[in-house]
Amino acid sequence: MSNPPINLNRRHFLRGAGVAMALPWMESLPLMAQSPAKPPQRFACIYFSNGVEPIHWWAKGQGAAMELGPVLQAMLPHREDMVFIRGLYNQQAFASTSPHLGRMPNLLSGAKVSLDPSDIRVGTTMDQVLAHELGARTAVPSLVLGIEPNELRLEDGLSMLYGSSLSWVTPTKPASKEIYPARAFDQLVGDGTGRRLDRSILDAVLAEARSLKPKVSAGDGTKLDEYLESIRDIEKRIAHAAKEERLEGWRPTLAKPDMPRPADVIPQDIPTHMKLMLDLVVLAFQMDKTRLATLMLNNDLSQMNFKFLEGVSGALHLDLTHNGRAPKAEAMYLQTNQFHLQQFAYLVNRLKNIDEGGQSILDSSLLMLCSNLFDGDTHGADQLPILLAGRAGGTLKTGRNLDYLDQGNDNRRACSLYLSMMDRMGVTLDRFGDTSQRLRDL
Questions:
Q1: What CA–CA distances, in Å, run from 181 to 110, 164, 234, 340?
Q2: Residue 347 burial (10 A CB sphere; 0-12, 13-18, 19+)
Q3: Which of 3, 17, 381, 407 could link 211 by a cystine bridge, Cβ 3.0 to 4.6 Å?
Q4: Is 360 helix (H, G, I), strand (E, B) or coil?
Q5: What domains lie within the chain, and their CATH numbers?
Q6: How far apart are CA 271 and CA 50, in angstroms?
Q7: What string of DSSP letters covers 215-256?
Q8: Rounded to whole angstroms, how far apart are CA atoms 417 and 169?
Q9: DSSP letter for each residue of 292-310
Q10: Is this model's pTM higher than 0.70 or not?
C-alpha cells in the first residue's frame, strides 16, 4: 500500500506521537500563500558579565583587513560578517550609584533601575518589545536562556534577581530564564506533555520523514538528513551531559546524591552547557520555533569557576575581573574574555554554515554580543562592549568598525542602536529607553 500524499509547503511539519517538528526552510517545497517569500529575520543577544580589559578590546580598519584586539581573535574568520561598535552607553546605568546591579538589568532597556529594595523595577527590554510584536508568529515567542540560575540572595541590599535577569517582560517582571538544556529542547520539539527524554523524538516522526524525502530535491534531501541528524546529536549530548558528575564553582558535602536522580539535570561542565545552549538557539532558528533569543553566559557578579581553562586557577570569575591590574589575574581575565568570544564565534559559524535557499541563517539574523560594563575592574559604564554579526536580511552592512568616540558624536546612546535594530526587525517605535534618535551610520 502506498503512503498517503503529503500536503507539502516550505513550513512543513513532521508529526508523530503527539509531537510536531517544524522543518527548516527548503526551496523545493511549494510556497504557501501566507508564508514569507524568504526566510524570516532573527535576533539573538549573547551576554557575558563583568566587562573586559579595555586594552584588549579594539578593532582597526575595515572588511577582510580589519585588525582585532586580543579578546576578539576568535572572530578573525568572521570579520566580514561583523560590525564592531565602540563608544555606546546607557545614561541611567552610567549615573547609577550601584556599580553592578544598577548597570546590569537595564542593559537592553536603558531604563532606571530602582534601588529601593521593596520595589524591583527596571524597564521592558528590547527583545521583549520584539516578542510582544512578533512572538505570535512562532510557537515560542522568545527563547530566554542562561547558564547560571536566578539568585534570590541580596547584594548590597538589592535583589540578585537584577543580576540574574537580562530579559524583562515588563518593568517589574523578568522573563523566565531556562538553564536546563533538556527543558529548552522540549520547548522546541516537544508538545508540553512531558515526553520522556530517553526516547528520541526522531523515532516518532521517522516514518513521515522517509515518505517526505523522495518528494524534495537532492539538495533539500541532504538538508533534511543534516537537520534530523542535528536533532539526534543534541539529544545524545543532553543524555551524556546528564550523566556527568563534575561540578563547577563549589563542591557540596556529598560527592554523589543520596536520593534518586531527578530527570533533566543541568550539565556540570561549563563548555558543554554553553555549547548545548548555543546549539539550541541554532535549532530554534532552524526550526522557526522562535525568532528571538537571549543567552546569559554568566550572571552579573558571577561565581562561575573557569578552572577548565588552562592556566586559570584559584579564583572565580568575579575575582578575576576585579583584579586591581595584577598581571597574573589580568592574564586570566583575558582568557575568560577570549572564551566568551569563542562561544559567540561558534554561534556565528554554525548559523553561517546552514543554507536556506541560497543564503545562510546568519544572513537573515542579527546577533549581538555585549556586556553590562566596559572596564570590569573599575565598573566602567562610560561605554559598552558591543559586537554585531549577521546581515539582518540584507539591511545591515557588515565588515565595519564604527567608532562613536572618535567621531565626537553626541548621540552615543545604546538605545539608539536598539531603535535601529528593531527597525530592521520590522518594529518601529518613536522612542525607546533614553532616546528617540536612531544610530547614525549603522
A1: 30, 17, 9, 19
A2: buried
A3: 3
A4: strand
A5: 41-199+268-281+290-424 (3.40.720)
A6: 19
A7: GS-HHHHHHHHHHHHHHHHHHHHHHHHHT----SS---S-SS
A8: 20
A9: EEEEESS-TT---B-TTST
A10: yes
